[in-house]
Each structure stands twice: as structure tokens, then as C-alpha cells.
């Protein structure tokens, strides 16, 4: 396991979304007004298609800490979904070796009517963590979340901070080879943040490849060793953090 | 990885089956979510179905002039099983669309969502089935050994419902109108199928001919028949088995072709 190399290879990857409920013409008109976002076009049958990503090429290997920069709608989320295997490219080849963990939308699957305890099991099942594993680490998760007796209360009674602490505590027990993130996770009060920061560092150190979509210059400069700047679904720049950040954020 | 062999669909189905703890949990969570903070929980469904059976039974038992000992068990089984069939079919249509958040975020085999929908409705069936022994007790209908045939019957019904949900789920993710069409169609099928009325009430041979073409009739025959103490006709078995085999073949072809488009369609 330890000797296995994780790797990601994207070869001319394109992702196109059909938009069925839109009027082709009016959308075409709006095309001119769209400042950011993927390219809109019509396919051979006249359907309106959003080309969220076009001819993306890159390969990541062990040790890569990749930051994805780009405006809203530039294709960052679509790229993360292709990396997670949720989307299969419309054309091109996406080869991903290694098990993937995602810290995107850590609250997904949390049922407000269910107790914290139940939600730990739901969330873990969604992440593919076995029941025995979760039972073994249950106390650790509860302790980390600092929820105490609230763990047996419905999560709708939680404050938003407690909610996030619960989601964070379950979601971060993973240690994947490839980690996907959408912005840095920052939860709770100062004290919890400190703990969370330490745990994030732990995960990051054990993961082989990190891909994080962000708008933060600090994150790119402090965490990443490679940055890809996406614009209109294409790679505008791919290089070391300092130079891409300078080009993207300006001096 | 991008090869388009039929094994993609099969691999998805097999790995979905392996995620049975997740399926089980999500199915139960659906039930719990619907009935949380209510004391009777999912038995509310049973109560309302019981009330419906009692009222239809009283009215139509009189109209058809059938003895209650025969009519009530027939009706109760028909309605309970129909509830299982129709909710599987209509909820199967939204199996993928209702799981949009999960599908777009986590790489979980997609057939999990069809299984979740089936399992949820199977749990509901488990609640509703308690009506049957109560009805049998009330009208004093005896139990028979033929009842054991219910087990293969319900398995065969389930195999059929799974492919129907899968096909409808895929198609209605792409064409959202299908859900509405199916909801309407199930209402029509309810009246066309001998659930409230017994097949013996049909006057002519032509009508009986139509009945034999109704797949739901055969699926009901192999499940309802044994519990009522009648051995289902061989043709009902054959029809149901053929439907399962052909249906699954068609389903796999469709699923294999469109499986990867589902996240894009959501």
C-alpha cells in the first residue's frame, strides 16, 4: 500500500453539459453578456451545451499539492468532480490511480432530524467507511467534536458551529491517497480551529496528492507547490505558485 | 476505463450490491425521516391502508355481492401488494433525481440509489403486511401450505420491480415528464388490474384475454394467489420469469449506455 504511487493523468479531457430546459436562441443571445463561465454552444443536434472544461491536459504525481484558481464558473468544481470520478469526461481520458477522499461539502447527508450519533453513521456510510471501523473510532470522533451529551440530540437543535464540528469530525477520519478540497476547512471557535488545523495538517501530510480549489492567495502560496489557473474551462496558466499567483491576483 | 463494454453496467450493479450496508442505512433513514416525531411511525401508512381496505371492502363487497370471507382477504392482499408495486415504480422514477446531492458529490455506484428506493418500499411492505393476518383472523380464513409459494413469488416480483425502477430512473432523469406520465399510468393500471374486482367477475372471454396481457396481473397472481390458497397458473410464472429475464437484459443495455450521462443530466 505504502509503495503504491498515486497518479492522475488528464488527456484532452472535455466536459460538456447539455442544457435541456433552455431556449437555444435566447441563450445564444445571452452568450455575449456572459463575462465568466464555460463556453456555451450548440451540439450537432441543436441542443445547447455548456462546455465546462475543454481539452484539459495535466498529470499529477506523488507529492503534488495543486491549487486551482479561477473565477466562479471557470470550471473548478467540474474539475474536482471529474477528479472524484463523479463525472466521466465527455471526451478525452481521465486516469486516476489511488483512492480518493473528498472534503467538499462535508455536511452532505446530514439529516437534521437525526441525532448526532445517527448522523455519524450516515456520513461514514456515505464515505464508505465500514461500520466496525466507525464503531472503533466512535468515541474519538465524539470527543473531537466536543459535542458531549448533545451527540444524542437531533442535529436540528445544534448551533451552526456544532453542526460543522460534527461534520468535520466525521469527515476527517479518512486518510486518502488523493485528497480533494474546495477551499480550506475552517470551523468553530479559536480553540477548535487550532485542533482542526492540526488534523488537517495530519491528513495533508499523509496524503500523496492534494487538489484544492480556492480563491485564497495565502492558501496557494503556503500549501501548494503547483497552481493551475482555469478560465472559461481552459487552463490559462499552469506553474509554480508564486508566478501564477502574481499573474492571477496581480502584485 | 472508458471502454464501453456491457461490464460497466454490471460492475456498477455488483459494486452497488456490495454497498448493502449503505443501502440498508439510507433506506431506513428515509423511513425514519418521514415519520420522526410521530409515535406510530411508519405504521401510519398501515393504518391508512387498513382504513382504505375496510371502506372499499364494505362498499364493493356489497356491490359485487361477494361473501366477505372471500372478498376481504383478496382485496387486502391486492391493495397491500399494489401499494408495494406502485410506490416502487413511481419512486423509481426519481431514484436518481432525488439523490442529486449525493450523486454530484460522491463517487458511489449509481444502482445504490435504485436499491435504496426498493429497500425503503420493502420496509413499508413489511409494515403493511401485518394487515393480512388481521384480515384473515377477522374473516376466519384458514391458512394453507400453498402460502409458502408466496416466497418465490415476492422474489420474482422484486426482481421485476428492480429492473423497472432502473429503466424508469434512467429515462426520467433525462426526460422529467416521464415521472408524471408514470404517476398517471399507475392510476389507470390500478383500475385495469384485478385488485378491487375479482377476475371471475369479467363477463366475456375478450376481457379475460386482455387480462392475460397485463403484466401486473401475473405479478399479482404469483404473490397474491398463494396466500389466498390457490396455486398460480403456470402461465403466470412463465410470464413473470420471461419478463424478469427480458426486462433485465433491456435494462442492462440501457443502463450501460446512459449510466455515465446521469450525473450530467442532474
Explain what you see.
Chain B: InterPro entries: ABC2_TM (IPR013525). The complex is a heterodimer of chains A (251) and B (266). Chain A has eight helices and ten strands. Chain A has 251 residues and is α/β, with parallel strands linked by helices. In chain A, the strands form two sheets. Chain A has a six-stranded mixed beta sheet, sandwiched between helices. Chain A has a four-stranded antiparallel beta sheet with strand order 2-3-1-5. In chain A, strand 7, helix 6 and strand 8 (209-213) form a beta-alpha-beta unit. In chain A, helix 3 (116-126) crosses helix 4 (131-145). Chain B has helices spanning 7-18, 20-35, 43-64, 68-93, 100-105, 111-128, 131-139, 150-174, 177-192, 205-212, 215-228, 234-258, 262-265. In chain B, helix 4 packs antiparallel against helix 7 and helix 8 (150-174) runs antiparallel to helix 11. Chain B starts with 6 loop residues before the first helix and ends with a helix. Chains A and B meet through strand 1, strand 5 and helix 3 of A and helix 2, helix 5 and helix 13 of B.
Helix and strand layout, with pairings?
The complex is a heterodimer of chains A (251) and B (266).
Chain A: E1 7-19, H1 24-31, E2 39-42, E3 48-61, E4 65-69, H2 76-84, E5 91-97, E6 100-102, H3 116-126, H4 131-145, H5 160-171, E7 178-182, H6 190-206, E8 209-213, H7 217-223, E9 226-231, E10 234-239, H8 241-249
Parallel strand pairs in A: 4-8, 4-9, 6-7, 7-8
Antiparallel strand pairs in A: 1-3, 1-5, 2-3, 9-10
Helix pairs in contact in A: 3-4, 3-5, 4-5
Chain B: H1 7-18, H2 20-35, H3 43-64, H4 68-93, H5 100-105, H6 111-128, H7 131-139, H8 150-174, H9 177-192, H10 205-212, H11 215-228, H12 234-258, H13 262-265
Amino acid at each position: 500500500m505504502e509503495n503504491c504511487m498515486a497518479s492522475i493523468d488528464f488527456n484532452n479531457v472535455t466536459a460538456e453539459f447539455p442544457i435541456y430546459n433552455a431556449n437555444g436562441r435566447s441563450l445564444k443571445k445571452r452568450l455575449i453578456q456572459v463575462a465568466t463561465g464555460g463556453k456555451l454552444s450548440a451540439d450537432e443536434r441543436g441542443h445547447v451545451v455548456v462546455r465546462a472544461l475543454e481539452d484539459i491536459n495535466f498529470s499529477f504525481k506523488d507529492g503534488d499539492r495543486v491549487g486551482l484558481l479561477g473565477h466562479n464558473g471557470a470550471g473548478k468544481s467540474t474539475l474536482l468532480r471529474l477528479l472524484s470520478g463523479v463525472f466521466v469526461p465527455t471526451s478525452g481520458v481521465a486516469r486516476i490511480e489511488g483512492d480518493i477522499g473528498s472534503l467538499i461539502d462535508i455536511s452532505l447527508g446530514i439529516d437534521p432530524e437525526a441525532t448526532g450519533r445517527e448522523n455519524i453513521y450516515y456520513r461514514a456510510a456515505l464515505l464508505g467507511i465500514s461500520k466496525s471501523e466507525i464503531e472503533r473510532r466512535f468515541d474519538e470522533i465524539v470527543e473531537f467534536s466536543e459535542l458531549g451529551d448533545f451527540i444524542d440530540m437531533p442535529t436540528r437543535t445544534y448551533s451552526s458551529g456544532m453542526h460543522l464540528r460534527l461534520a468535520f469530525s466525521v469527515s476527517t477520519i479518512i486518510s486518502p491517497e488523493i485528497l480533494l478540497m474546495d477551499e480550506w476547512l475552517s470551523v468553530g471557535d479559536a480553540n477548535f480551529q487550532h485542533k482542526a488545523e492540526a488534523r488537517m495538517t495530519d491528513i495533508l501530510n499523509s496524503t500523496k496528492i492534494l487538489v484544492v480549489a480556492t480563491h485564497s492567495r495565502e492558501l496557494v502560496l503556503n500549501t501548494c507547490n503547483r497552481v493551475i489557473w482555469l478560465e472559461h474551462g481552459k487552463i490559462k496558466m499552469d506553474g509554480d505558485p508564486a508566478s501564477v499567483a502574481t499573474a492571477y491576483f496581480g502584485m | 476505463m472508458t471502454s464501453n463494454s456491457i461490464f460497466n453496467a454490471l460492475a456498477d450493479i455488483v459494486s452497488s450490491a456490495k454497498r448493502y450496508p449503505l443501502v440498508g442505512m439510507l433506506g431506513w433513514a428515509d423511513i425514519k425521516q418521514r415519520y420522526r416525531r410521530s409515535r406510530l411511525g411508519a405504521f401510519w401508512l398501515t393504518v391508512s391502508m387498513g382504513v382504505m381496505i375496510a371502506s372499499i371492502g364494505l362498499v364493493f363487497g356489497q356491490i359485487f355481492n361477494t361473501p366477505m370471507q372471500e372478498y376481504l382477504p383478496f382485496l387486502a392482499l391486492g391493495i397491500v401488494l399494489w401499494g408495494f408495486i406502485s410506490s416502487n415504480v413511481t419512486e423509481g422514477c426519481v431514484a436518481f433525481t432525488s439523490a442529486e446531492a449525493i450523486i454530484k458529490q460522491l463517487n458511489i455506484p449509481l444502482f445504490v440509489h435504485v436499491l435504496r428506493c426498493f429497500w425503503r418500499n420493502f420496509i413499508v411492505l413489511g409494515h403493511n403486511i401485518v394487515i393480512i393476518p388481521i384480515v384473515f383472523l377477522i374473516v376466519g380464513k384458514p391458512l394453507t401450505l400453498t402460502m409458502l409459494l408466496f416466497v418465490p413469488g415476492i422474489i420474482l416480483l422484486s426482481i421485476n420491480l428492480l429492473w423497472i425502477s432502473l429503466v424508469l430512473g434512467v429515462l426520467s432523469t433525462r426526460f422529467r415528464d416521464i415521472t408524471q406520465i408514470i404517476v398517471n399510468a399507475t392510476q389507470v393500471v390500478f383500475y385495469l388490474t384485478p385488485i378491487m374486482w375479482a377476475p371471475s367477475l369479467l363477463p366475456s372471454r375478450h376481457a379475460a384475454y386482455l387480462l392475460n396481457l397485463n403484466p401486473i396481473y401475473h405479478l399479482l397472481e404469483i404473490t397474491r394467489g398463494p396466500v389466498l390458497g390457490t396455486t398460480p397458473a403456470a402461465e403466470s410464472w412463465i410470464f413473470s420469469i420471461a419478463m424478469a429475464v427480458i426486462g433485465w437484459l433491456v435494462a442492462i443495455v440501457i443502463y450501460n449506455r446512459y449510466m455515465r450521462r446521469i450525473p450530467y443530466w442532474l
